[in-house]
Automatic annotation (TrEMBL):
Gene3D superfamilies: Tetratricopeptide repeat domain. It holds the Pfam family DUF4037. This is DUF4037 domain-containing protein. It comes from the Bacteria. SUPFAM superfamilies: TPR-like. PANTHER family: NEPHROCYSTIN-3 (PTHR45641:SF19), TETRATRICOPEPTIDE REPEAT PROTEIN (AFU_ORTHOLOGUE AFUA_6G03870) (PTHR45641). InterPro entries: DUF4037, TPR-like_helical_dom_sf, TPR_rpt. The keyword Repeat applies. Keywords: Repeat, TPR repeat. Residues 478-580 form the DUF4037 domain.
Length: 681
């Protein structure tokens, strides 16, 4: 493979030549353009880095290191990337380039490297410095700062602080809109509206979902008014709009938007692309949801092959439905009475409002803790999962939040801050703390709100002050943590986390090592096979209804866990304890691009049929047909679930077999496990 001009070590010892950064960049661009294998690109980068050392050229090394950061990040090699970032930090200090545009750009690269590696506290620190440097260099309203706020939004999204993520995007939108010559036709403004819609759509409140719809629709109008429909970004905006509609239950509008997105992707990139396949899969999921819910599917306009004509057809359909949506939304009579607010307030929304009203003022009395306290609501309790309703208000409910401190801060200020927190009003927005929220249990080691050291908080839930290591020898520690425990440690919302320490620790519990995840998938397949495919029919034949019911329960539990494991806990979290198991499954099934979305409804059917199948007996039910029809339906449903699981394993590349008896799938799964101690557990 070719390399930079022949500047050999012998030349470097006899000349004052410097590294040719311009030629380096040109050749690197050529390697990427010709799809050179990653291993060769890496070798070229490392060879150039070595040349900068031999030439003692700090500026050249600075340029190469910045490119290596981007390359390693794209390859997912985060530990290698962090080593390069640390070298770049040291080199930058040696070069005294603080205050320059090059340093501001490098700060963003360093911060992004830490974010990609999951080191959120470091990432937030470097993003903050990048923002400070950029504001000094360019001013607070320079368009380049919008990208920084976008990066910060991604950081907050990844750490679960969706409110702060939305705030960062709103700042980015304000900057871009103010600097645009025509915001109504600006593609960057449209893209920011799309990103903001995606963040808001993930929150639990109706207001946020409505805001998400408005931002997604605004993005579409910008593309339309600006004549920008030929852009691939338009396809992404349509997919976002479709996802927001789907989450709002407007399935017909989601179908129309997904269909239009496919038309745009085909015109821009062709059908044989990953983006086309992803959107096609999403459309299939929505069509299936419409079919199962008996919703009329909008007729697809016939395509003419003329892109602009076809866009106009779809756009007219989309605009008509948008108008209907707006009319329906605004026809509702809104009242601002306390009673209405009281009925609609969720526990998480109440906690955030309580924090804003009283918590921020409380911290003003502790100046040493400014910029050091994480705040939110995480842990045990229906409201932490977002599943609370009016029936949840009879215990452990009321205005409350948690504050998390480092060990050092907690040792010095924890007791004083806890006393100040307990002195806050016990009534807020018409809600009062229930009596059992002030019992010795709720105020002692088992308390669910107040002031905690970060490590103590997670230890009280999981038994560990931080997530177990990914070291193969420590895998048993992960296996000691059941999924309901991990769900409680990673649910809820974070309202503020200036240090990032709480978010980083919480994210560690989400980041289950893949060997452990695959080992658990193998276990779940084994239990589904043993309980549902083997023992259930045998127990039914023996007329042992109680044993059959228990077998069915084991199948449902194992399958529910499998759905979450297949969907990746780092993305969707963990299956919570039995009380909220199906609420969580339904929520996951409605999520766009969810894997095995149909399984939740099938499992609920199994539960409904279980009584008749296990205890029906002869003459049971309508017409005296006994348990047999229910047994046949259960058998068919289990077969369908197991077939769907195998199809998903094949899609994920986890098996090469189409065998639907799930026990026989386990060896194929375990081929992907590198830790031998985790196989066939």
């Amino acid at each position: 493979m070719s390399s930079i001009d022949a500047r050999t070590p012998s030349h470097a010892s006899t000349t004052t030549q410097s590294f040719d950064a311009e030629q380096f960049m040109q050749h690197l661009d050529q390697l990427f353009a010709t799809h050179t294998p990653a291993a060769q690109i890496e070798q070229y980068l490392l060879d150039c880095l070595q040349q900068t050392h031999e030439l003692d050229d700090a500026a050249g090394e600075f340029s190469v290191l910045n490119e290596i950061l981007g390359f390693y990040r794209s390859q997912g090699r985060h530990s290698d990337n962090i080593a390069m970032a640390e070298r770049l930090i040291t080199l930058s200090k040696h070069m005294h380039i603080e205050g320059s545009e090059a340093w501001a750009t490098t700060l963003i690269n360093i911060a992004t490297a830490y974010r990609a590696a999951g080191q959120y506290a470091h990432a937030q620190q470097w993003y903050a410095e990048a923002l400070d440097q950029s504001e000094q260099l360019f001013g607070k309203h320079d368009r380049r700062l919008a990208a920084l706020h976008n990066n910060l939004s991604m950081l907050y999204s990844e750490t679960g602080d969706l409110r702060q993520a939305a705030n960062e995007l709103e700042q980015a939108l304000s900057i871009i809109s103010a600097s645009s010559t025509d915001p109504s036709r600006d593609i960057d403004v449209a893209s920011t509206h799309t990103n903001l819609a995606l963040v808001l759509a993930q929150t639990q409140t109706a207001d946020s979902r409505e805001q998400a719809y408005d931002h997604a629709a605004t993005a579409l109008r910008i593309y339309h008014h600006g004549g920008l429909e030929h852009s691939g970004h338009f396809a992404s905006a349509l997919a976002c709009f479709a996802q927001v509609c789907f989450l709002q239950g407007n399935i017909q509008q989601a179908i129309t938007a997904f269909r239009l997105s496919l038309v745009v992707i085909e015109q821009c990139y062709g059908k044989d692309t990953e983006s086309y396949r992803v959107i096609e899969s999403n459309l299939h999921d929505v069509l299936e949801a419409a079919h199962q819910s008996h919703i009329d599917i909008p007729q697809e306009p016939p395509l003419s092959g003329n892109f602009d004509h076809d866009i106009a057809l779809f756009w007219n359909a989309l605009q008509l439905e948008s108008q209907i949506h707006d009319e329906n939304r605004h026809s509702v009579t809104h009242t601002d009475t306390t009673e209405t607010a009281h009925q609609s307030m969720s526990g998480l929304a109440l906690a955030r409002a309580y924090w804003i009203e009283y918590g921020k003022v409380l911290l003003d009395a502790f100046p040493a803790l400014q910029g050091r306290v994480a705040v939110g609501l995480v842990g045990h309790g229906s409201e932490c999962y977002g599943f609370d309703d009016e029936y949840s208000h009879d215990h452990d409910f009321g205005p409350r939040f948690c504050m998390w401190l480092t060990d050092e801060d907690y040792q010095q200020y924890g007791e004083q801050l806890e006393q100040a927190y307990r002195a806050l009003p016990h009534e807020f927005m018409g809600y009062a703390l229930s009596d059992d929220a002030r019992t010795p249990r709720s105020l002692g080691a088992g308390r669910r709100d107040g002031v905690f050291a970060i490590g103590d908080f997670f230890e009280s839930i999981t038994g560990y002050r931080s997530a177990p290591s990914s070291d193969p020898q420590q895998a048993h520690q992960w296996l000691l943590l059941d999924e309901a425990t991990l769900a409680a440690a990673t649910n809820g919302e974070i309202f503020a986390d200036p240090l990032g320490a709480f978010s980083s620790t919480r994210q560690g519990f989400k980041n289950m090592p893949d060997d452990v995840r695959l080992a658990l998938i193998s276990r779940r397949l084994g239990m589904m096979s043993q309980a549902g495919q083997y023992n259930l029919p045998r127990m039914l034949k023996r007329h042992d209804g109680a044993a059959a019911w228990l077998a069915l329960r084991e199948f449902v539990q194992a399958c529910s866990s499998l759905v979450f494991l297949i969907n990746q806990p780092i993305t969707v979290g963990y299956l919570p304890y039995y009380k909220w198991q199906f609420a969580a499954l339904r929520k996951l099934s409605r999520r766009m691009a969810s894997r095995l979305p149909q399984v939740c409804e099938q499992l609920e059917s199994l539960m409904r049929l279980s009584s008749a199948a296990c205890f029906g007996g002869v003459g049971f039910g309508e017409g005296g047909k006994g348990a047999e029809p229910a047994i046949e339906q259960i058998t068919s449903c289990i077969d369908s679930i197991c077939s769907a699981v195998v199809d998903e394993l094949l899609t994920e590349g986890l098996t090469r077999s189409q065998e639907t008896f799930l026990e026989w799938q386990r060896p194929y799964i375990e081929e992907h496990i590198t830790n031998p101690w985790l196989r066939s557990l």
